[in-house]
């Protein structure tokens, strides 16, 4: 594989960090208008440039880390000078469908939409992917990119907006929960640093428990709660104050905002 990453903002740069050590990728071209912020990644394997056309000329796979309002104009600029037939196009843009992209690059092109999240920068992203004209073989190629930054799942394109809310916006929701737990930890006696460390490991441990045991969250909660114990008292206080309903409303609110 020869990979072009067009637009190295936060997500594009996170992907660049992840794939630069991937031996299955022969060469990488990374672009940004101001290349100074990604110049440190330049190597024999990684070429840094502000020229999108130059980056795409020899690439077999093109990752578009562009804002939704930029993706079509830049694709039109590239396709006017580069033959994109036979190249796999991977868009990270929210709300721009594969069929819309196909109108610019060609109906026969293999086109993917992917939605990583900010945890890509630490190789712990969840990336939801859908494809147009894709095959199991091309899926394996695209997997090489996103396995470098975390875990990936294939979903129907109709669910891509929902994936954006749950997987990408969801990181902010979890972090707000972490901050609230930390603030509560300070209130009950810890200094901020100690409270933060305890909460960080607690959240990490809970996620690992779910992942490794395969148990439903309620089954794990049952293992922690005891009759008349402090855990059930705290959980019930939270639910009486609308904890679960507030979270569900927030996720639905984000989804509605994305639809507007």
Structural account:
The chain has 260 residues and is an alpha/beta fold. The chain has 2 domains: 2-155, NAD(P)-binding Rossmann-like Domain (Rossmann fold); 163-259, ProC C-terminal domain-like (ProC C-terminal domain-like fold). Helix content is 51%, strand content 15%. It has 10 helices and 8 strands. The chain has helices at residues 10-19, 52-57, 68-79, 98-105, 136-146, 160-187, 192-213, 217-224, 230-240, 243-259, and strands spanning 2-6, 27-31, 46-49, 61-64, 88-91, 111-115, 125-132, 150-154. An 8-stranded mixed beta sheet has the order 3-2-1-4-5-6-7-8, with helices on both faces. Helix 4 links the parallel strand 5 (88-91) and strand 6. The longest helix is centred in the last third of the chain and has 28 residues, at 160-187. The radius of gyration is 21 Å and the shape is elongated. It starts with a strand and ends with a helix. The mean pLDDT is 95.
Radius of gyration: 21 Å
Shape: elongated
Give the % helix: 40-55%
What's the CATH class of the largest domain, please? Alpha Beta
Number of domains: 2
The helix-strand sequence is EHEEHEHEHEEHEHHHHH
Structural class, judged by helices and strands?
alpha/beta
Q: What name does the CATH topology of the largest domain carry? A: Rossmann fold
Mean pLDDT: 95
Which strand order does the major sheet show?
3-2-1-4-5-6-7-8
Tally of DSSP helical segments: 10
The CATH homologous superfamily of the largest domain corresponds to NAD(P)-binding Rossmann-like Domain
